[in-house]
Design a protein that fits this description.
- Helices cover about 60% and strands about 0% of the residues.
- By secondary structure, it is an all-alpha fold.
- The chain has 2 domains: about 1-40, no CATH class; about 45-150, no CATH class.
- The protein is globular, with a radius of gyration of 18 Å.
- The two termini are about 30 Å apart.
- The model has no long low-confidence stretch (mean pLDDT about 85).
Length: about 150
């Protein structure tokens, strides 16, 4: 369970920079008083979209949503917003999230064999869904992980 803990608990060595923090502008540990630039750059979003560890977390989150409600997309998006953004979803966001989920599901259905290969082994509750629905839900979770509101506190 230690490998999924928040990064604030990770031991930092001066001569080794944790790869994820490299993308998110971590301070340089080789100098005694580092100063960071305030940056938001494309590699951050690309890393979050393409990282196997973030994809695994999206699968875990999708499984948790299905545990909460076996086959109700409205409950899924409502719970998704509560868990990830710590707030209630608005009606407009709910409609957009449902539309996106349906579009992602349709995209996954177009190439079902590739979808099955991409999603890999599914957890128990997630495996009860069709592969295209599971893939759509996983990618919706991945999308929410890429929202500015998820990454930054205003």
């Amino acid at each position: 369970a230690e490998h999924t803990r928040r990064g604030v608990y990770i031991m930092v060595r001066r001569n080794f920079r944790f790869p994820m923090f490299e993308v998110f502008d971590a301070p340089i540990t080789s100098v005694s008083c580092p100063q960071r630039d305030v940056t938001t750059v494309a590699p951050q979003a690309l890393w979050t979209l393409n990282s196997p560890s973030v994809y695994r977390q999206a699968k875990h989150l999708a499984n948790r949503l299905v545990q909460a409600s076996p086959n109700d997309p409205n409950v899924w998006v409502k719970t998704l917003w509560k868990i990830t953004l710590a707030r209630t979803i608005t009606d407009q966001e709910r409609a957009e999230a449902i539309d996106l989920l349906n579009a992602l599901e349709s995209d996954a259905a177009e190439n079902l064999e590739q979808t099955k290969a991409n999603i890999g082994q599914l957890e128990t509750e997630l495996a009860t869904l069709t592969p295209q629905r599971a893939a759509g839900l996983i990618h919706l979770c991945l999308t929410v992980y890429n929202l500015n509101e998820f990454s930054f506190v205003d």
